[in-house]
Amino acid sequence: MSFETTIGAFAAALEEPSAPPPAETSGRLGAPDQRRFSVYRNNVAVGLIGALEARYPASRRIAGDDFFRALARAFIRARKPRSPVMIAYGDDFPEFIGGREGVAPSLADVARLENAWVEAYHAADADAAIVADLAGLGNDRLPGARIAFHPAAHLLRFSTPAASIWAEAQGCAGPAEPIEDVAEDALVTRPNTDVNVRVLPPLAYDFALKLKDGATLIEAAAAMNDPAFDFGTHLVGLVESGAVASLIPGSLS
After folding, report:
1. How far is CA 31 from CA 5, 20, 39, 88, in A?
2. Does residue 126 register a pLDDT over 60?
3. What is the value of pTM for the model shown?
4. N or C, where is the chain less crowded by C-beta within 10 Å?
C-alpha cells in the first residue's frame, strides 16, 4: 500500500470514532492496538475543540462548558479542518450551531460576532481615515464621492441583543442586563491594534451597508428616506470608528 493511501486510511480512522484502527498500524504485539490508537483520536478531538473554545470564549461562557463542548464535538464530526492553520478553523461554527435544535438564536448571534472579531483581528493592515480627511470633500467633490472600507470592518445585523450579551459575557462596558427581544446592529473595527465592537444606532447599519455595496455618499443618504437620518452624524461616526480606509472624492464637473 502506498504511503498516501496509508496516511489517508489513518486520517479517516481518526475522524470516525466507531472505526477500528487501520490495519497498517501495529503495536508491540504486531497488530492494531485500539487503546493506543484511541489516544491519537482523542488528541485530535481535544485539539479541535480547544481551537473552537479559543475562538468563541464568550459563547462558551454563555452556553456553559458541557453544552458548548457537545456542540463542538458535533461540529468537528461534521466539519473537518480545510487548512493546517488552526486559527482558520471554525469560521462556519456560528452557521452550524444556528441550525441546531436547542440552540438559542442569541448564542448563534454571539458566535457570529466573535467570529467577526477574530477576522477583524487578523485582517490586513491598512491606514484608517480620520475626521480631518472629511475636509477634502468640498461641495464640488461631494457628488460622486464614495468611501473605501477598512479590511477589518465588519457590519453585523442580529435578531437579538447579541452585542450587549457579548459585552456582558466578557466584562466589557455595556448594559448590566441585555434588553430582551431587541435586535441590534453592530460594527466591528480595528483602527489601530485593538478590535472594537460598537452597537449601531438606528439607520447606521443600512447607511453603511449601502456605502459598502458601492453607493455614493449622496445615494446612500437619499436611500435612508427618513427625516430622523442625520447624514453628517452618521458619516463622522463611521470615520471615527475606524471603519473607513479612505474617502474617494467625486470627479470635478
Report:
1. 19, 12, 16, 36
2. yes
3. 0.83
4. C
- Render the burial of 100-135: b for 16+ CB within 10 Å, e for the rest: eeebeebbbbbbbbbbbbbbbeebeebebbeeeeee
- CA dist 132 and 113 (Å) reads 30
Q: Helix or strand or coil: residue 145?
A: coil
At 203, list the grid cell. Answer: 439607520
CA dist 196 and 188 (Å) reads 6
The boundaries of every CATH 3.90.930 domain in the chain are 126-253
Neighbours of 88 (CB within 10 A): 15
Q: Is 253 helix (H, G, I), strand (E, B) or coil?
A: coil
Q: Are residues 183 and 161 in contact, defined by beta-carbon separation less than 8 angstroms?
A: yes
Q: What long-range pairs does 21-26 form, CB within 8 A, spacing at least 24?
A: none
Per-residue pLDDT tens digits for 16-53: 655 666 656 665 665 555 655 555 555 668 889 999 99
Residue in 116, 110, 238, 111 with CA at minimum distance from that of residue 163: 110
Angle formed by the axes of helices 217-224 and 231-241, nearest 10°: 120
What nine digits make up the cell of 200? 449601531
Domain 126-253 has CATH 1.10.1130: no
